[in-house]
Here is the input.
Amino acid sequence: MRRINLSTMPVNASSQPLYAAPAKSPKPESGRTHQINMPTTTARMVKTDRREDLRQRFCEVRNVTLRLTESLSAEDQMLQSMPDASPVKWHLAHTTWFFETFLLLPHIPSYKPFDARFQFLFNSYYKQVGAHPQRGSRGLMSRPSLGSVHDYRRHVDAAVIDRLKQASDGEWDLVELGLNHEQQHQELILTDIKHALWSSPLPAEIHGAAIEPASSTPRSWLHFEGGIREVGHAANGFAFDNETPRHEVLLRPFQLASRCVTNAEYLAFMTDGGYRRPELWLSDGWDRACTEHWDSPLYWNCADDGAWRCFTRAGLKPVEPAEPVCHVSYFEADAFARWAGVRLPTEEEWEVAAGSEPLTGTLLDDGTLHPQPSKGEGLTQMIGDVWEWTASPYAAYPGFRPAKGALGEYNGKFMCNQFVLRGGSCCTPASHIRPTYRNFFPPHARWQFTGIRLANDAS
Ligand SMILES: [Fe+2]
Here is the structure.
């Protein structure tokens, strides 16, 4: 029997860190969208620095993506276990397609595509670019081979690096967008292959050594004053369009839990009939839970001895009480909060709270690919470990305008029937996350590293 074991996932496959330390510290929040009255020589230096950073990051990010896949066979990389999840091979090709479609083809008249058919094949959803395959059919792409997709990446990488010698400001912006896009797909590679390997009829083996008992800091409630506050991105540095414009919101005083909900707390909800009590659930959530027979978070499994185990990159392991509960839907997060007598935070409350302290947590760069127990004082796990469901529907900020053209389809057209998640997870690259970052998924989604932080009205 072939051993299914993700412990050899690429983060451990090399002694090199996934990401090198940034060449310089990120710029502090300035509250302004542009520096003004900057001396010309300084402006030129800043521009040169940014270009050098991006050139370096291009090689680094493209390389990290490959490293995330290097322990997987070609067969593994073709798997599509459900329409929401894509094959690893498709992610490798699609992130390459993004650079080819938005940077190379429009800006280099002499550019020769690696294969003209890939324009259709690896388009995800950009209707203004042209037709694309149905999302659920990505697992049918036995052709092109994985080797061809690697060749495609090399072809595009060489063309991009060559173009960077003479790229305009607008083209550098496209490179930056393409790199952030690729980092989003790095996390999707990990979540999608996890689901695919969990779905395999071959049972995953329990991975060797006993789990070290870990403790979590006790939960406390942190108080935040109400009033008119600002949220949204307004700093130097990259942000997606959905994080803008920065704007004022009126908040009532609120409390936020110092850490995420743990497995032990979630087990108490389950033991108290959490999955059998319709009064705790939103109607759509109850219907979904009944239809799909939910009785625990995704990837949990109750063994014959009555103990809960969960599927991780290291195979099945006992559910660790102190770890944050993970792979729960919005519906489960909402039901848990109702059972606990409190609520989920709004995204504005989350962001205002996040601005109050230095943020730490487990990210992709740490290499665990698994959320870790809370440590330390104050607000913990705000960045990394698990994406935190908020009570906020994913909608446009006041004054939001999507970009013109096909790239306007990146975020804006998904502002319907989804909820905002904040903070990143153990599979999010450290250089990709920030307090204003707005992730979004439908309320039934469970295969991302999604967890729960509680909030409450201040008394
Ligand atoms: Fe994409």
